[in-house]
Amino acid sequence: MAGLDSLLGGGFPPGHVYLVSGEPMNAMELIGYHCASATAAGGSAGYFATENTPEEIKLGIQAVGGNPERVHVIPLPYQGKWVVPDAKKGMRYVVDSLSMLILNAGFMEAYQNLKRVKAQMRQNGDNLIVLVTAGLHSEKEVAMLRQWADGVMELGFDRQGFGLYPYLKISKMRGTPDSARLLLVKETDRGLSLDSTKRVF
Length: 201
What we know:
The chain has about 200 residues and is α/β, with parallel strands linked by helices.
């Protein structure tokens, strides 16, 4: 995703965790597939499955040009402690639906797991990208998740005249020159294309 890479100076810094939130739409899943796919190109990535099947995840990664054989799909239990098997330095992990875990296990149990996994990511120099569906959680829960994350990306729609334009809002991101930026989101036959709107909140 060239627009996002350019904004972040080449990609996500290691040892950080990121929150991606938005309405249930293809773009949010595609961001997860792109993130896993880019890492798998140079090594391997992990994909925590809570909503999609391993087969669906592999197909999604293949659809954005990734190698699904280099992505380890890890089913996450709705309750109990999350386990990160075979953790290696420099890995990137994606949680396909934190919202599903929260709805089934309760917010505090999911949040405690997030804090524990964040410490592990920091220690190993790994990345964690967590997808959350907007509108399913209380204001307090959203505030806690935003505080937990090192960076926040929010998918939304900008209404201009009679047009509706999807965008990705970047905020609270380490290393970005502005406090918040917008990238226009376009779906293509190879996944997502992100272009800077050069608009700053």
